[in-house]
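Troubleshooting log. The previous structure file for this entry was overwritten by mistake, so regenerating from the original sequence record. Sequence copied from the archived sheet and checked twice against the printout by T.R.
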Amino acid sequence: MISPRFARAPYITIVDIANGSVTWVQPVKNPFEAMPRGAGVSLAQWLVSIGCRVVIGTNFGPNLGFVLQQAGVAMHVVPPGYRVIDALRMLGLVR
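Regenerated output below.
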């Protein structure tokens, strides 16, 4: 499910997509969830470092958004509580 928080979501789901189909899915415990400060920037830098090109969330803080924008990562906003696959379909990323 899409968390109402992005940088402090308990899990981040990494999805590979090829030709409109999901080819790989890996939920990862968010290592930055409990950081007292800087969770957004740290998560954004990590996402860029693993080659992320698109992120889906309900809200992106300004610092996290700035890092992702500078790296050319597309940010898509969806309502909280959506299943990841439903959000991917709604955005037209998968069939």
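The chain has a mean pLDDT of 95. Archived copy saved in two places this time.
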